[in-house]
Amino acid sequence: MSTPTWSMPATSPHAAILGLGVDRAKRVVPNADLVAAIDSSDEWIQQRTGIKERRWLGPGETLESLALAASQRAIASSGIEAAQIDAIVVATCTHTLQTPALAAKLAHLLGTQAPAAFDISAACAGFCHAVGLASDMVRSGTSRYVLVVGAEALSRVTSKTDRGTAFIFGDGAGAVVVGPSEVPGIGPVVWGSDGEQFDAIRQTVDWVEAHENQDPELPYIAMDGPAVFRWASYEMAKIAQATLDRTGIRADQLDLFVPHQANMRIIDAMARAMKLPEHVRIARDIATQGNTSAASIPLALARMYDEGTAKSGDLALLIAFGAGLSYAAQVVRVP
Ligand code: UT7
């Protein structure tokens, strides 16, 4: 008896980012509004993080509304129709409904034609994980157009009295459409994790435990800030270099460096350790947006277009890191 076989979809030689869209939460929250509850100061927050203000959900805004607006803009800028999207991957750690995935709701709201729709959990590293996945899905022929969304409403899971995190996080969403390309637009992903530091950034208690304990306040995201700071500052520069080596690109060939917006001092430490040449423009969105976890890289890239420091076709190194601890990085040509 012959062994059954089957045919596989046609592959695409390369994948690229075709369009970008973002949505920033509307409420501007300056440091001055937060310092009393945590015995801090505007000066301390700016010096230690580079953050002057952050964006939090305003009236009528939700995680879903941010993700939807960013997705609609990404689709419009990519030149395809929503109906052509055959997969949606949402990276988020603040969709507080355990199931179903936010991606499935988005698929419906966007008017797509029943695409694959799922969320991934890789915290602040989620966007680069999802771009890596989308690139492989397109190149393998599994999907033709993948909508990748990084969306967070961290203000809802931040304790306003936790001295280690109350001032860090912000809300927003960024999305890209990944599709087939004749030339390489997304380089190989370099990703990994350090599960030994599983507790370094985590939800204080799980939802069931909180319910059983009859906790008066919701669980929130807590962090061993100095441990994460050391790990990110030293280890992530090595991952960035490994990504360039794996792609076959030198630092002086880059136009843009778009790291996760966790802390301005981490961004500077990475750029120094990588000996980035002066001409490489560095994303610094955190100053007015805060750390938006999985949304931070597309939001930071969008600001670079707005300020005229990024243009279509620029070569960018993306690198993201966070809870897990997890990380992912790739070189991309920006749309
Ligand atoms: O997005 C996911 C990844 N996340 C990150 O990458 C975050 C990484 N970590 C950080 O960004 C930093 O660790 C923080 C910004 C969270 C904290 O900054 P730090 O420089 O690591 O502060 P620290 O916790 O080491 O504290 C230094 C000093 C201490 O005082 P003494 O002992 O030197 O007198 C703290 O008591 O600052 C004091 N301190 C504060 N002072 C005013 C700690 N928190 C505060 C505060 N306001 N909120």
Describe this structure in words.
Helix 7 packs across helix 8 (264-273). The protein is 31% helix and 24% strand. It has 2 domains: 14-181, Thiolase/Chalcone synthase (Peroxisomal Thiolase, Chain A, domain 1), CATH 3.40.47; 190-333, Thiolase/Chalcone synthase (Peroxisomal Thiolase, Chain A, domain 1, 3-Layer(aba) Sandwich). The protein has helices spanning 35-38, 42-49, 63-78, 102-109, 126-139, 207-213, 225-247, 264-273, 286-289, 296-306; strands at 14-24, 27-30, 53-56, 87-91, 116-120, 146-153, 171-181, 190-193, 201-203, 221-223, 256-259, 281-282, 315-322, 326-333. It has 335 residues and is an alpha/beta fold. The protein is globular and about 70 Å long. The longest helix is centred in the C-terminal third of the chain and has 23 residues, at 225-247. The protein binds oxa(dethia)-CoA (UT7). Oxa(dethia)-CoA is lined by residues 38, 40, 44, 48-49, 124, 163-164, 167, 201, 225-226, 228-229, 232, 262-263, 266, 291, 322. Residues 38, 40, 44, 48-49, 124, 163-164, 167, 201, 225-226, 228-229, 232, 262-263, 266, 291, 322 line the site of oxa(dethia)-CoA.
Mean pLDDT: 97
Task: Flag low-confidence runs.
Answer: none
How are the strands ordered across the major sheet?
A: 1-7-6-4-5
Our Rg estimate from Cα atoms comes to: 20 Å
Q: What small molecules does the structure contain?
A: oxa(dethia)-CoA
Largest sheet composition: 5 strands, mixed
Would you identify the CATH H-level superfamily of the largest domain?
Answer: Thiolase/Chalcone synthase
Helix content: 25-40%
What is the first-to-last residue Cα distance?
51 Å
Structural class of the secondary elements? alpha/beta
CATH architecture group name of the largest domain: 3-Layer(aba) Sandwich
